[in-house]
């Protein structure tokens, strides 16, 4: 059954950054329709990523209005949006298959059965041409696994799995060769069309083949909208304002050259004149023609020499009339957009998230703590083997107790610092993506690290106690109890420092 048509509307968004008087985005308004692929284009620093952050809720909407259908988009609704960031962030110890299974478990509700989850994974993997690396570890800069292009496609796969109503992508073709980049953009277009989804992607300078896949274009220059409308109308628009596209050029290449050259001022001037308006028109029709299916009247122009120049007042009047008509049409439609979206975006329960996180953490279990405790136990047992119970040996016993306390303190303060620091970037990314709750992550982390936090120290201390021949069973209970309490206290300190520190990696190195 085809999904209900949706419209994502942003009106009059202005975004400032800290300690800067110039807005990153200035009165940005645009509309994106479901079933269409929208490209956000512009030179570096034009505000493309900031716009996507604002749409998905990572930046607060301090000004402006964001609507899905006729209802204002809430934070809860934004959490259901899919967002592929520029950075590909994964747990490096997992294989791609395990990562996709984990994503399916934490993001899909109980109404999606195991067979359907596996079917979705299979379809996404096939569509993104990831079959060859499905069982390859993701890896990181130390442990090479997936290539940059494979990680890029894996990020897209994770978002497509939960079938969001609105999918945002920040430079999805970066790191991909021309052929693969084109196939990815074509896939996104086909997915938007066949599933009636809203897809908005930023892209810096697409090839000609990729450029012609897009349905609509939003052009940003210095945070201002300099064009919004259908891609096929773009060349006519720029021709009419005196910036004609050469016939033999890739339109995207020429556009990037134009907005960074002497024509930048003209493009900005016309953009402010025609597109800085909170009253948002429907999608553009071809410039200079009448297209009753698009909602624009013919664009009034006057001829001056060989150049066509817009009559800005008549243009704006036409937009206002069309906007009113579009609003009336929208008023008559049933208002069940957000209810439908909430039903489809129902997440996995807390318990399901916890189980998936436990499985993922166990798969990521590091062997290093086991090796560390083995070496530590062997060395200490050899150095303090069978201490004699004589007065002159009391110093040896005190030395052993001091060394055990100090070494266990250092190990168990540094271990949580290291563990949580390694996970910090990944967890922050996944919490922003609304994959799971922080409480589920923390408890799963605590449960799966119990072997290194309690069991390994207990085994190590037990072996050392009997190797050093420190006393009876009662003494053993007191000995291990006190040192385990010290271990737990130090682990708590390590967790505290890792959570409150703004620079945990620097503190760990220090």
Automatic annotation (TrEMBL):
GO cellular component, one term: plasma membrane
GO molecular function terms listed in the Swiss-Prot or TrEMBL record: ABC-type transporter activity; ATP binding; ATP hydrolysis activity
Keyword entries, A-Z: ATP-binding, Membrane, Nucleotide-binding, Transmembrane, Transmembrane helix, Transport
Bilayer topology term: Multi-pass membrane protein
Domain ABC transporter: 8-247
Pfam families from the UniProt entry: ABC2_membrane, ABC2_membrane_7, ABC_tran
InterPro entries to which the protein is assigned, alphabetical: AAA+_ATPase, ABC2_TM, ABC_transporter-like_ATP-bd, ABC_transporter-like_CS, ABCG_dom, ABCG_transporters, P-loop_NTPase
Keyword Transmembrane helix listed: yes
Primary localisation category: membrane
Transmembrane segments: 365-385, 454-473, 479-500
Subcellular localization: Membrane
Keyword Transmembrane helix attached: yes
Family classification: Belongs to the ABC transporter superfamily. ABCG family. Eye pigment precursor importer (TC 3.A.1.204) subfamily.
Protein name from the UniProt record: ABC transporter domain-containing protein
């Amino acid at each position: 059954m085809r999904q209900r048509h949706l419209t994502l509307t942003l009106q009059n968004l202005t975004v400032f950054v800290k300690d800067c008087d110039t807005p990153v985005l200035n009165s940005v308004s645009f509309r994106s329709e479901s079933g269409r692929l929208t490209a956000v284009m512009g030179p570096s620093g034009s505000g493309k990523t900031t716009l996507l952050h604002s749409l998905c809720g990572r930046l607060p909407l301090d000004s402006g209005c964001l609507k899905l259908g006729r209802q204002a988009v809430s934070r809860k609704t934004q959490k259901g949006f899919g967002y592929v960031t520029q950075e590909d962030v994964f747990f490096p110890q997992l294989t791609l298959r395990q990562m996709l299974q984990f994503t399916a478990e934490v993001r899909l509700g109980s109404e999606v059965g195991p067979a359907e989850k596996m079917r979705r994974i299979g379809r996404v993997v096939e569509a993104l041409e990831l079959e060859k690396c499905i069982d390859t570890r993701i890896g990181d800069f130390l442990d090479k696994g997936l290539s940059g292009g494979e990680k890029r496609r894996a990020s897209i796969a994770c978002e497509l799995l939960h079938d969001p109503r609105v999918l945002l992508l920040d430079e999805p073709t970066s790191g991909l060769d021309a052929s693969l980049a084109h196939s990815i953009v074509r896939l996104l277009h086909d997915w938007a069309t066949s599933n009636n989804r809203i897809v908005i992607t930023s892209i810096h300078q697409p090839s000609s083949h990729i450029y012609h896949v897009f349905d609509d274009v939003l052009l940003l220059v210095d945070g201002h909208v300099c064009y919004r409308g259908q891609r096929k109308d773009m060349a006519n628009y720029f021709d009419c304002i005196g910036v004609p596209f050469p016939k033999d050029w890739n339109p995207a290449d020429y556009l990037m050259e134009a907005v960074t050259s002497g024509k930048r001022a003209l493009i900005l001037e016309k953009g402010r004149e025609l597109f800085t308006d909170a009253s948002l028109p429907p999608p553009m029709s071809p410039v200079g023609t009448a297209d009753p299916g698009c909602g624009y009247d013919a664009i009034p122009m006057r001829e001056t020499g060989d150049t066509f120049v817009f009559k800005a007042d008549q243009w704006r009047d036409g937009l206002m009339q069309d906007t009113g008509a579009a609003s009336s049409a929208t008023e008559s439609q049933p208002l069940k957009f957000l209810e439908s979206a909430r039903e489809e975006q129902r997440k996995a329960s807390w318990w399901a998230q916890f189980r998936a996180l436990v499985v993922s953490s166990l798969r990521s279990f590091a062997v290093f703590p086991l090796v560390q405790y083995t070496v530590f136990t062997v060395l200490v047992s050899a150095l303090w083997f069978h201490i004699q119970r004589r007065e002159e040996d009391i110093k040896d016993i005190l030395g052993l107790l001091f060394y055990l306390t100090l070494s266990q303190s250092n190990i168990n303060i540094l271990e949580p610092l290291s563990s949580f620091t390694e996970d910090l970037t990944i967890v922050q990314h996944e919490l922003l993506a609304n994959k799971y709750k922080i409480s589920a992550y923390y408890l799963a982390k605590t449960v799966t690290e119990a072997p290194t936090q309690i069991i390994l120290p207990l085994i190590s201390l037990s072996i050392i106690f009997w190797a050093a021949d420190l006393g009876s069973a009662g003494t053993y209970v007191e000995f291990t109890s006190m040192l385990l309490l010290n271990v737990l206290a130090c682990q708590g300190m390590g967790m505290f420092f890792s959570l409150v520190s703004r620079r945990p990696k620097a503190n760990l190195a220090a």
